[in-house]
């Protein structure tokens, strides 16, 4: 027998593998018809005694595989000769066979996957090869080579050095279902089990190519399989340079986990390429073609590519040049990871068991890179924890010298590249899990590339690798976990759920907060508005200011300037109370944060003078002696002239983006002190590092009824930051505020008050109404709800109410149960109409946004005989629609009240 060059990694430079006139072939005739028979070859190539007979090995061996039968569903297909494991999930109907194992089964098999559970990607029928013909299987090495080879599998085993090592194959479509939920791609729905690891035995592709002798100018190696498909034989190519690089580990293989190849995995011969997508590892290998250009095979061009994300399925049909662009072809895998435990829908009791749960899963990187860290977040990426990682692949390095496994030399000791998946785990305390909305994981590789937060959608849906997100559902005394998707058309997973709820999964927040998408308060940079009257030059003394601290002639200070609010007491949208509340004080903070540019532009009219810096300092010092710091218990919490702290004691989620924040007041009998229909101001410090700890002040209407004592409930819709726009500073800061922290309140403010039995005051003037039309959207329900509850809660009150409440989806409707309860008990006095802009098919209520037609139909022109007031609260654009619509129907401005 001929002695082969023993170490393939002695290739020392890119040009060294090209044949030169001086280099003579070491092999004279590769196309001999051998007289070796089946058993000869097996004896040499597969030492059956080496599987375990020598005692335990320091590296993993595959679990025992099963003896399967041809399944009934395959009998009527061209694959009727293929025995398969019934546990595999078929992703493309019965045929062709494209399958993945249930994710937990795959994980449970451990580092090595049996042929039974190894994923399969077949573009068409499986070629039939009789066992007796395996060794006679012929294939070629042709194209730009000096000595074209035609050889049999027998030759390959007999004449070349055999090697064995573990390799993880991953289909480029792994996790594609997630892309399909976002938007249908041209690919079928893989879950997260489109990958498997096996011990592959074969011959280094570089050895074969060297034997054939590579011509100058050659740059690619094309492969072609025996499976005839609608667009020709399956084929693709890789770079020649990689084929020659021992670090890349590309092999021609005929054995998987010690067994001759299963028909689904390429029986009898295939290419196996570590670190690259499975699509390049051509099965049923017939031809190896060395070439100057990449493969022109249809499957090389129209499969396994990541086109730019804006190329739609429709547009892609007419872009041949885009498809051919080699830069879009996928070779190396990208870094990816998934959680396998908890499994989808796994339920975890919170009590009676261990205090932690071990999250576990897999990760891999491409091109021989190592996964260098895996991080877990329980707060949507704000903070991360390192998980433990194990690399079973490294254990093969411990194999003794000259180890032969399955007839192939197992020598991983010199390898630096990683060809396999690794496993991560992290014990998470139940106490933390309970408070988490979700658990997300991301892996990083040793080139410091980290999995992205957001998906890169592309027309073939390949290489999907955003953070793997497991949603945590609190259900009584248990937690239930929800994976992003389930493979195939089977329902399940948070992505489909969120989508069905009418939300946008790619809103940058996993679809969670979409209700606010169009309503979000986008804060624009503050323009400089001139608030002083240049004509005014009067210096005002502190004492004089202090004389104006009542309701007669209220003066107040903003930015060191003094304003007289007297003329505006009536017209002030925040009501006279808020001006009087600031009388005699420096109200810069709340004034600047609450008022619009328009309001600020009005200020020169009220400007009367300025305060000296000394006076300002004194004023600030005096503010500290405000009543809120006195020790005697106050019966009423809210004070109009000073901020009163209350401690945040709980946050209760009531919809995807809305929470009730509960604050504990000074003592259990302290009442809030907020008249019905009025609002309070809330002040907290912006925690974001770039904010300089600015105070943020917003007005809210609490949920607590006027009779409430001891606590204060505020319903707040949180406007989260999104890819497209910044969210709300206040609401996000509030959301991030830990329990136990204090927030400041002040009030009441507001020009409207409901006194009961149809009596109300608007801007201090009393008015009696017979009917309210209340128009609101989203969290705009809060002030409306206060008034409605007061009206409906009093049986002696005959005022009628019609509520028009607009939302996106049913789940977004706040206080729905309470509203419906009021309608029920109200005996016709109250009607509530919900209108949804993104309803499910099953929704029987109103559909669409609020518009003129709706107002026309449900409200109409103002009635002459009965005094009706329209109360409005919602985002700006909605309020504009109401203002315009009602105006056109003949409603007078003073009958419309915008909260
Ligand atoms: N001849 C041939 N080779 C092929 C394919 C195929 O359909 N025909 N599918 C490819 C794809 S896309 C993948 S992901 C891998 C899957 O290998 P497996 O089925 O052994 O897991 O094979 C690749 N090689
Ligand atoms: Mo694939």
TrEMBL record:
Span of the signal peptide: none
Domain Cytochrome b5 heme-binding: residue ranges: 537-612
Domain of life: Eukaryota
Subunit structure: Homodimer.
Alphabetized PANTHER family for the sequence: SULFITE OXIDASE, MITOCHONDRIAL (PTHR19372:SF7), SULFITE REDUCTASE (PTHR19372)
Protein name: Nitrate reductase
Region: Disordered, residue numbers: 1-27, 49-80
Species this chain originates from: Lasiosphaeris hirsuta
Any one GO biological process: nitric oxide biosynthetic process
Reactions listed under catalytic activity: nitrite + NADP(+) + H2O = nitrate + NADPH + H(+)
């Amino acid at each position: 027998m001929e002695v082969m060059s023993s170490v393939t990694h002695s290739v020392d430079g890119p040009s060294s593998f090209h044949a030169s006139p001086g280099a003579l072939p070491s092999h004279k005739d590769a196309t001999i018809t051998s007289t070796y028979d089946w058993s000869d070859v097996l004896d040499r190539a597969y030492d059956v005694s080496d599987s375990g007979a020598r005692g335990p090995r320091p590296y993993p061996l595959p679990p025992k595989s099963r003896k399967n039968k041809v399944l009934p569903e395959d009998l009527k297909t061209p694959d009727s000769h293929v025995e398969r494991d019934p546990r595999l999930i078929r992703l493309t109907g019965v045929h062709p066979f494209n399958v993945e194992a249930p994710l937990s089964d795959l994980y449970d098999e451990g580092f090595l996957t049996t042929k039974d559970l190894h994923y399969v990607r077949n573009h068409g029928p499986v070629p039939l090869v009789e066992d007796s013909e395996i060794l006679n299987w012929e294939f070629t090495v042709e194209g730009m080579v000096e000595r074209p080879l035609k050889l049999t599998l027998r030759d390959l085993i007999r004449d070349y050095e055999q090697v064995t090592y573990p390799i993880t194959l991953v289909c480029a479509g792994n996790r594609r279902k997630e892309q399909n939920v976002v938007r249908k791609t041209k690919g079928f729905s893989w879950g997260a089990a489109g990958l498997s690891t096996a011990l592959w035995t074969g011959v280094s592709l570089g050895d074969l190519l060297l034997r054939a002798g590579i011509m100058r100018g050659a740059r690619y190696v094309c492969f072609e399989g025996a499976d005839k498909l609608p667009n020709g034989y399956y084929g693709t190519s890789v770079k020649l340079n990689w084929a020659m690089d021992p670090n890349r580990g590309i092999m021609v293989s005929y054995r998987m986990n010690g067994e001759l190849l299963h028909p689904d995995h390429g029986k009898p011969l295939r290419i196996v390429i570590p670190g690259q997508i499975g699509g390049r590892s051509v099965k049923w290998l017939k031809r190896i073609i060395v070439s100057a250009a990449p493969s022109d095979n249809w499957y090389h061009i129209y499969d396994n590519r990541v086109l730019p994300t804006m190329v739609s399925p429709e547009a892609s049909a007419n872009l041949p040049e885009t498809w051919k662009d080699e830069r879009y072809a996928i070779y190396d895998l990208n870094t990816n990871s998934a959680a396998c435990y908890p499994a989808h829908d796994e339920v975890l009791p919170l009590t009676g068991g261990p205090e932690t749960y071990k999250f576990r899963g897999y990760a891999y990187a491409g091109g021989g890179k190592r996964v260098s860290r895996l991080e877990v977040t329980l707060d949507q990426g704000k903070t991360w924890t390192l998980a433990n990682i194990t690399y079973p692949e490294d254990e093969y390095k411990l194999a003794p010298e000259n180890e032969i496994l399955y007839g192939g030399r197992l020598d991983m000791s010199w390898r630096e590249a990683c060809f396999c998946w690794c496993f991560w785990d992290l014990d998470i305390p139940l106490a933390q899990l309970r408070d988490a909305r979700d658990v997300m994981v991301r892996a990083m590789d040793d080139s410091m590339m980290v999995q992205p937060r957001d998906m890169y959608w592309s027309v073939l849906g390949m290489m999907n690798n955003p953070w793997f997100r497991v949603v945590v559902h609190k259900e009584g005394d248990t937690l239930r976990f929800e994976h992003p998707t389930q493979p195939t058309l089977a329902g399940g997973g948070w992505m489909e759920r969120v989508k069905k709820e009418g939300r946008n999964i790619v809103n940058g927040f996993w679809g969670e907060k979409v209700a606010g998408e169009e309503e979000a308060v986008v804060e624009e940079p503050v323009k400089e508005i001139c608030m002083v009257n240049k004509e005014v030059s009067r210096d005002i003394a502190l004492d004089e200011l202090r004389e104006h601290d009542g309701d007669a002639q209220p003066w107040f200070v903003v930015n060191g300037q003094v304003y007289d609010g007297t003329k505006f007491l009536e017209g002030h949208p925040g009501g006279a109370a808020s001006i009087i509340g600031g009388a005699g004080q420096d109200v810069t903070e709340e004034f600047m944060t609450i008022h619009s540019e328009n309001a600020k532009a009005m200020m020169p009219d009220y400007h009367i003078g300025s305060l000296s810096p000394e006076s300002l300092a004194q004023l600030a010092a005096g503010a500290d002696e405000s009543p809120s710091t006195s020790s005697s218990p106050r019966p009423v919490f809210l004070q109009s002239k000073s901020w009163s702290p209350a401690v945040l004691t709980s946050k209760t989620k009531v919809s995807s983006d809305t929470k009730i924040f509960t604050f504990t007041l000074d003592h259990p009998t302290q009442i809030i002190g907020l008249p019905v229909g009025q609002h309070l101001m809330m002040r907290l410090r912006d925690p974001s590092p770039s904010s300089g700890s600015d105070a943020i002040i917003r007005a809210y209407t609490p949920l607590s009824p006027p009779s409430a004592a001891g606590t204060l409930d505020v319903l707040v819709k949180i406007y989260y930051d999104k890819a497209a726009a910044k969210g709300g500073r206040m609401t996000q800061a509030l959301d991030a505020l830990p329990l136990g922290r204090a927030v400041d309140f002040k009030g009441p403010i507001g020009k409207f008050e409901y006194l009961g039995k149809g009596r109300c005051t608007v801007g201090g003037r009393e008015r009696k109404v017979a009917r309210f039309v209340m128009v609101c959207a989203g969290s705009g329900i809060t002030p409306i709800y206060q008034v409605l509850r007061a009206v409906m809660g009093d049986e002696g009150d005959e005022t009628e109410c019609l509520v028009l409440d607009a939302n996106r989806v049913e789940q977004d409707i706040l206080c729905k149960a309470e509203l419906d309860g009021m309608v029920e008990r109200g005996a016709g006095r109250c009607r509530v109409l919900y209108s949804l802009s993104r309803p499910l098919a099953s929704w029987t209520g109103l559909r669409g946004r609020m518009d003129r037609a709706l107002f026309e139909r449900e409200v109409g022109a103002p009635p002459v005989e009965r005094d009706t007031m329209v109360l409005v609260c919602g985002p700006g654009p909605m309020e504009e629609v109401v203002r315009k619509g009602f105006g056109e129907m003949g409603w007078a401005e003073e009958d419309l009240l915008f909260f």
